[in-house]
Amino acid sequence: MTRSFGLPALILVATMLMASVAWAGDGTAGSTFQDPFWIGVGAGPSAMAAYTAAPGDLWSLTYNPAGLAGVDRLKLGVSQIEWAEDTSFSYLGMGLPRGEGGLAMGLAYFDLGSVPVTDMYGTDLDESAEAYNFGFVGGYGFQVPNICNLKAGLSGHVIQASLDEETGTAIGLNMGLLYGLMENQVQLGVAARNLGTKIKIDEEEDEQNLTFAGGVSYSTMKDQIPNVDLMIGADALLPKDQDVMFGVGGEIWLYQTLALRAGYQSGSEFGNLSYGAGFRYSDFQLDYTYADYEDWEATHRISLTMAFGD
Fold first, then answer.
1. Closest to 107 (Cα-Cα) out of 206, 41, 176
2. What's the CATH number where 122 sits?
3. Which residues, at least 6 apart from 100, have a Cβ–Cβ distance to it below 8 Å?
4. Average pLDDT, rounded, for the chain
5. 38: buried, middle or exposed (CB in 10 Å: 19+, 13-18, 0-12)?
6. Could you tell me the sign of the dihedral formed by the alpha carbons of 69, 75, 76, 82, in that order?
7. Calpha distance 301→25 (Å, rounded)
8. pLDDT digit string, tens, across residues 13-55
């Protein structure tokens, strides 16, 4: 029974990933305006700029859901970011171990503030409307049976976008795989993010920002370096409506109490440096990230994670 489940599950996930890669490379332009998940969640991952192949935790939900297999305790997380042009993004998430993996879910709210109103020809009407996006996401990551060191994950989301009195809804999927080498010190990851339907508001259609991601990470083993835990990673991202982007970054934990992080992401629109720090005390962890963008103003993100049980 277990053998028959493991191989079909792997084939299904791999097939869907390859299909999404083919779609992502067709050159069709899209829009990320309606997508509250494209900037990711969690201050720690955003500081490192490369999280596709991270070993996994609560924040893996929107980067690579296969990482949810690493959720070993009940955890709650909240994250807030002051984004560009007076917009803000808030996220509340929960993760807990289930079976051979981890289950997670979250709520996201993207406040877009006041948006200029134009007519069907693009003429500015000298008016503004309040806009926001609301999203729910849930997923599961698990160890694939009978395939050593391979994890798979799947998550789904629902997005509702609102512009004045008009609303639109879309659904989407995120899928991913993680494979461990060298006693899981090295992780290889692939993911398809935001594979889903379009959002239609007042006759205008916007696509979710479909992205194919691949990455590699390296983590030190416990006590390999006394009082130091290190993780570094590198990502390659292929968004549907942009050029290929690359990210590299890492974090270092000192005495499992203080974390220092840094990352860099190249790309036609983003190209940013990010820096961050984290502090852990008992079952609480506080993280902060500062990101310096080439074309936008700097952003600040803060996250708080709380763990429960043994």
1. 41
2. 2.40.160.60
3. 69, 142, 143, 145
4. 82
5. middle
6. negative
7. 31
8. 343 333 333 333 333 323 334 567 777 789 999 899 899 999 8
* 40 neighbors 25 (Cβ within 8 angstroms): no
Domain, as residue range, for 196: 2-308
Q: Tell me the HSE value of 298 on the side-chain side, using a 13 A CA sphere.
A: 9
Q: Which residues are paired to 234 by β-bridges?
A: 216, 248
pTM: 0.81
Number of domains in the chain: 1
- How far apart are the C-alpha atoms of 149 and 170, rounded to whole Å? 34
Q: Is 28 exposed, middle or buried (0-12, 13-18, 19+ CB in 10 A)?
A: exposed
Between CA 35 and CA 241 the distance in angstroms is 14
Alpha-carbon span 178 to 214, nearest angstrom: 10
Dist. CA 118–CA 203, nearest whole Å = 13
pLDDT digits (tens, 9 = 90+) for 161-190: 887 777 888 899 999 999 999 989 999 999
